[in-house]
Design brief:
The protein is of the alpha/beta class and 324 residues long. The chain folds into 2 domains: 22-109 and 213-316, D-Maltodextrin-Binding Protein, domain 2, CATH 3.40.190.10; 112-208, Periplasmic binding protein-like II (D-Maltodextrin-Binding Protein, domain 2, 3-Layer(aba) Sandwich). It is built from 14 helices and 10 strands. It has helices at residues 2-26, 43-50, 53-56, 70-76, 87-94, 139-150, 169-175, 184-194, 221-226, 228-247, 249-259, 265-280, 291-303, 313-316; strands at residues 28-33, 59-64, 82-85, 100-105, 112-117, 132-135, 160-163, 179-183, 198-202, 216-220. The strands form 2 sheets. It has a 5-stranded mixed beta sheet with strand order 2-1-3-10-4, sandwiched between helices. A 5-stranded mixed beta sheet has the order 7-6-8-5-9. It is globular and about 60 Å long.
Length: 324
């Protein structure tokens, strides 16, 4: 009798393992390439992963860091299904016939701007004159700085542009430059925690054309044409993750901090409290994008000779994969 019982238990265990393996085999593998090291822009992804929302949609998601090629090229070439990018990069890619498409806005309004320690005495764009700006060497930087300075009868020609690469903001402004372009939701919050007073000049305070989506989630045209259901499933899971982060910032921060132990837990929690209300903000649903926002920034880029040709706005983004 005991022998029969052991055999039956063994069969149940094997059957259970078999079902587990079968379920795993049935999941569709997809990859998302981040734009940068994990931070609170990405929290919804990690929440969805932790709560197994992707598995519920039949997906096995792998989140990876960008390699030398970067997220845009990796996604556009079909080596990954999804990526994190920015409206300005998608706009530039589209005008160069690179088949990248934005499928969701992670944050509804642009929270970036130019920051400087208060002792640099930079409180308006006119104060950029005779100062050193630390950036990453993109033409758009000079164009945006100049656009802001022109409103105060100043010019970017009076600014020293320094390529600081991946140098940390706090190190750079202490050692090499006077101001830099930051996202307040991460670097600005870090400044608060450090007790470092900064002056912040938000782009959106100077032009509605600079209120663009940054970051965005992308895919490629081939995925849209051949695997639309996969995208719908992916976005259903991601949307749930960001909605949870909106409704419960503290829990979401815990999940991100646990998933990425190298992050400063205090910074993650403070940043999450600041950024969670901004994910959806005044939009009807998280991820929503508008033609007006895409047109405005594309017009700015074209007028400042940052694009080879005008953007086909309708082809650059879509809301069709967002849950109703």
């Amino acid at each position: 009798m005991k022998k029969i019982l052991f055999v039956m238990i063994g069969m149940f265990i094997l059957a259970g393992c078999g079902n587990e393996e079968s379920t795993q085999d049935e999941l569709e593998e997809v990859t998302l390439v981040l734009d940068w090291t994990p931070n609170t822009n990405h929290t919804g992804l990690y929440v969805a992963e932790s709560k197994e929302y992707f598995e519920e949609e039949g997906l096995d998601l792998e989140i990876v860091m960008p390699g030398e090629a970067g997220a845009d090229q990796t996604v556009a070439s079909g080596q990954a299904e999804f990526g994190i990018s920015y409206q300005e990069q998608v706009t530039e890619a589209r005008t160069q016939d690179i088949p990248l498409v934005s499928i969701a806005a992670v944050i509804q309004h642009n929270t970036s701007g130019f920051a400087a320690p208060v002792d640099k005495e930079i409180t308006s764009p006119a104060d950029f004159a005779e100062k050193a700006y630390g950036g990453w060497g993109a033409p758009v930087e000079s164009a945006v700085i100049d656009a802001l300075m022109k409103q105060e009868d100043a010019s970017v020609e009076d600014v020293e542009i320094v390529n600081m690469g991946n140098t940390d903001f706090f190190t750079a402004v202490e050692r090499d430059v006077d101001f830099a372009w930051i996202y307040y939701g991460w670097t600005g919050i870090e400044a608060e925690l450090r007790g470092t007073e900064i002056d912040m000049i938000y782009l959106t305070d100077y032009s509605e054309k600079l209120d663009y989506y940054t970051p965005v989630i992308t895919t490629n045209e081939e995925m849209i044409e051949e695997n639309p259901e996969t995208i719908k499933k992916f976005m259903a899971a991601v949307s749930r993750g960001y909605q949870d982060a909106i409704e419960n910032p503290s829990e979401a921060a815990d999940i991100l901090a646990e998933a990425v132990p190298d992050l400063d837990e205090e910074l993650v929690h403070a940043s999450q409290e600041w950024i969670s209300p901004k994910y959806q903000d005044d939009a009807d649903r998280w991820g929503e994008q508008s033609a007006e926002v895409w047109s405005n920034y594309a017009e700015f880029m074209f007028d400042n000779d940052l694009l080879e040709r005008e953007l086909d706005v309708e082809a650059a983004y879509t809301n069709e994969f967002l849950p109703e």
